[in-house]
Amino acid sequence: MLDSQLLKIAEDFGSPVYVYDAEKIEFQYHRLTNAFKNVKKLKLNYAVKALSNISILKLFKSLGSGIDTVSIQEVQLGLAAGFSPDQIIFTPNGVSLLEIEQAAKLGVKINIDNLSILEQFGTKHPNIPVCIRINPHVMAGGNANISVGHIDSKFGISIHQIPHILRIVENTKMHINGIHMHTGSDILDIEVFLYASEILFETAKQFKGLDFIDFGSGFKVPYKAGDIETNIEELGEKLTARFNEFCKEYGKDLTLAFEPGKFLVSESGSFLTHVNAVKQTTSTVFAQVDSGFNHLIRPMLYGSHHDIVNISNPNGRERFYTVVGYICETDTFGNNRRINEITEGDVLCFRNAGAYCFSMASNYNSRFKPAEVLWHNNEAKLIRKRETFEDILKNQVEVDFSPKKKVAVSK
């Protein structure tokens, strides 16, 4: 969508506000399905945690997607969005057996990554099929906080513990219907991903009743001009050939599953803020905006880059600014960025704000969470209202601290 349209949205809906371009989401979805068009059975399960607005989920349902969930609340949200239980896979980490049982009771697919929970679940519910999440001990991804397939990761059951898994399956007679891995986000080298896939294929040979193999996701999107991104087309060509070959060896056409989140929604998102003040210090020019890491924590949490553009002054001369928020704590969005000259009241647009942005927003400093808008069919549609002060107080319970009346004691 055009920057002029974003400016109109900032004017109509106020700021800060998240805006998502439905056409970009659809483009990314079809790009991924086209890359694997030669797989007989392909299933994309959108990772809800990336952006969980119910209207976004309904958009994915209309495209034919399933969903990947990591909490019982996300499962319930998916059901509320109209997904049938068989279109939902539950892939939690560190949750209780009770939560997994709650999800199983709702009829969704179950993915377990813990030997203890696997044994407990298999003992109590041997007739409920289970997918197993494997840790391939392959380092992929960018920041350590989003690389989840390495040997020290809390995610998945180690490939060195396959004999333990087989023993549990034999003892409980449970049915393993899928094998899963997720190496991490921001995959740069598809050869590393393909190497991890070979480990998954070798593991799959140990289980005779599989219906699907889930390769996770973590495909990298470009964050700035000239940035590296995962070559989805090359990966599709190479992994498709290897997957089809494996299915012949296995003697069954399995489903190839992915659980993309960032790849599908990141580039669709724009985060719009107004400039409250331009502050010159002895060494820095700060552009202070009406938001902070309460709304967009990624740059502070793990150093993510978001291009910042002054859409109010696209032709202005470039100057260097450090863009910061209004939180009473350091909340720097970008240091010494070349941005068209900024004046107070201008609208700054943060690009690539569709994934893990609003979904990690908070009420820190008792600030309201922002509104969300979907640009669909050349129309801006409000899909989440901006919070109000009533929302801040909604679940708080006040205690009465008024002095208690003294009871007169008769003599």
Automatic annotation (TrEMBL):
Entry's Gene Ontology molecular function annotations: diaminopimelate decarboxylase activity; pyridoxal phosphate binding
Known EC number: 4.1.1.20
Catalytic residues (positions): 328 (proton donor)
Residues noted as binding pyridoxal 5'-phosphate in the record, renumbered to the chain: 218, 356
Modified residues (N6-(pyridoxal phosphate)lysine): 49
Catalytic activity: meso-2,6-diaminopimelate + H(+) = L-lysine + CO2
SUPFAM superfamilies: Alanine racemase C-terminal domain-like, PLP-binding barrel
Pathway the protein acts in: Amino-acid biosynthesis; L-lysine biosynthesis via DAP pathway; L-lysine from DL-2,6-diaminopimelate: step 1/1
Class in the EC hierarchy, top level: lyase
Record carries keyword Lyase: yes
Domain of life assignment: Bacteria
UniProt domain Orn/DAP/Arg decarboxylase 2 N-terminal: residue ranges: 24-266
Record's keyword terms, sorted: Amino-acid biosynthesis, Decarboxylase, Lyase, Lysine biosynthesis, Pyridoxal phosphate
Binding site for substrate: 298, 302, 329, 356
Cofactors named for this entry: pyridoxal 5'-phosphate
Domain Orn/DAP/Arg decarboxylase 2 C-terminal span(s) in chain numbering: 18-354
One biological process term in Gene Ontology: lysine biosynthetic process via diaminopimelate
Stated role: Specifically catalyzes the decarboxylation of meso-diaminopimelate (meso-DAP) to L-lysine.
Family: Belongs to the Orn/Lys/Arg decarboxylase class-II family. LysA subfamily.
Subunit comment: Homodimer.
PANTHER family: DIAMINOPIMELATE DECARBOXYLASE, GROUP IV DECARBOXYLASE
Protein name per Swiss-Prot or TrEMBL: Diaminopimelate decarboxylase
Gene: lysA
